[in-house]
Amino acid sequence: MKQKTFLLKSLMVIGMMGVSMSSFAQSYEVDRGRVYFGSAPIPYADARSFVDLGCGYAKDCDNVYLNGRVLEYIDPATFRLKSQSKSHFREPMEYREYDSRHDGYYKSNFNVYYGGKKIDASVASFKEIGEGYAKDAFAVFYHGRKIDATAATFKLLEGGYAKDSFSVFYYGKKVDGASAASFKYTGNGYGKDAFNDYYRGRKLE
């Protein structure tokens, strides 16, 4: 019985280690002035000052990141990893709590929230669209931040792309020069309109 219990506990520890390590399988990448975690762009990261700290952590001049997500209320100028070896197996409690709170939008009877923050949205007409996008009757949001888009005509495409009647967006940022009327997603980060091809939201020359 003791041997069986020991074996079960060992398998549980190995499984937990595997899950923990898998969160760091993805890495940060800076490409054409944009920062990515795995294949997902980090829209508000500053590529010029971005530093990969290891173990899923990174920072730039404005923010500290964990697994591609902003850790709020943390000063990047003073942030340091005290022990990288421990971080492989256990994240600090405040970061794990932060991460679990920022999985999406939440609508109560009176307010709309993204993670732990209330956003300026109408509860009655608010709806989540997908891939971080949401809208109400008046505004469009990307991961809780209002973007310059027309709610009435805004729609999600694929691969992080979306558009309204006037503009095309890639993970919340406008795609410069793209024609909304003819734009379509073609797969693997690529899109096209009647005039140009695009990769990860940037026009290909």
Task: Describe what this molecule looks like in 3D.
By secondary structure, the protein is of the alpha+beta class. It has helices at residues 2-22, 84-87, 93-101; strands at residues 28-31, 34-37, 40-41, 51-54, 57-59, 64-66, 69-71, 105-107, 112-114, 117-119, 127-130, 133-135, 140-142, 145-147, 155-156, 161-163, 168-170, 173-174, 184-187, 190-192, 197-199, 202-203. The chain has a 4-stranded antiparallel sheet with strand order 4-5-6-7, with helices on one face. Strands 11-12-13-14 form a 4-stranded antiparallel sheet, with no helix packed on it. The N and C termini lie far apart (68 Å).
Short overview:
The chain has 205 residues and is of the alpha+beta class.
SSE layout and pairings?
Blueprint: H1 2-22, E1 28-31, E2 34-37, E3 40-41, E4 51-54, E5 57-59, E6 64-66, E7 69-71, H2 84-87, H3 93-101, E8 105-107, E9 112-114, E10 117-119, E11 127-130, E12 133-135, E13 140-142, E14 145-147, E15 155-156, E16 161-163, E17 168-170, E18 173-174, E19 184-187, E20 190-192, E21 197-199, E22 202-203
Antiparallel strand pairs: 1-2, 2-3, 4-5, 5-6, 6-7, 8-9, 9-10, 11-12, 12-13, 13-14, 15-16, 16-17, 17-18, 19-20, 20-21, 21-22
